[in-house]
Amino acid sequence: MATKKIQVINGPNLNMLGKREPEIYGSLTLDQINDDLAQQAIPLGMDIDFFQSNHEGAILDKLHEIFNKNIDGIIINPGALTHTSIALRDAMALISCPVVEIHLSNIYKREAFRHKSMLADIVTGQIAGFGHYGYQMALNAIADMINAS
Q1: Could you confirm whether 25 is annotated as catalytic?
Q2: Distance CA 123, CA 97 (A)
Q3: What pLDDT score was predicted for residue 20?
Q4: CA count, 13 A, side-chain hemisphere, 40
Q5: Least enclosed by CB within 10 Å: which of 79, 92, 94, 125?
Q6: What are the residues whose beta carbons fall under 8 Å from the beta carbon of 42, sequence distance 6 or more?
Q7: How far apart are alpha carbons 91 and 136 in whole angstroms?
Q8: Which neighbouring-strand residues pair with 9?
């Protein structure tokens, strides 16, 4: 069985996890979350590439790069771009593999401006409010989708 390629994309301010509002986002750093996810991927036969940027254009460039590669699944936490970026939505619409949008906090229990996701109707699924476990849930969901196809 060939190793499946998974791309994890983290948007603005997620590099500050563990420092930024731990009561909302938890105490783990992004590196810790990535390390845990990489370990979880091994028995699933998956290889994960991690990408984080505070710049919308860099994230769009990454999605364009992915479009031209053979990627089996994407986990994306777009951060605040979730609620504002039509450009991100347009780039995500190019993607044909399973995509899980995740949020550490439950965006629907927060400020009203966070209740709208520009991606919700074009991604495969959305996970919100489970903290760092959301990444693990997303990886398991993508593994199940790949294995079912």
Answers
A1: yes
A2: 9
A3: 79
A4: 19
A5: 94
A6: none
A7: 24
A8: 51, 76
Q: pTM above 0.85?
A: yes
Catalytic one among 83, 103, 108, 115? 103
Catalytic residue status for 135? no
Q: What does the H/E/C string look like for 4-55?
A: EEEEEEECCCHHHCCCCCHHHHCCCCHHHHHHHHHHHHHHHCEEEEEEECCC
pLDDT for 118: 81
CA 33 to chain centre: 12
**Residue ranges of the chain with pLDDT lower than 50?**
none
Indicate which residue of 25, 55, 132, 135 is catalytic. 25
pLDDT at 2: 79
Distance CA 104, CA 23 (A): 11
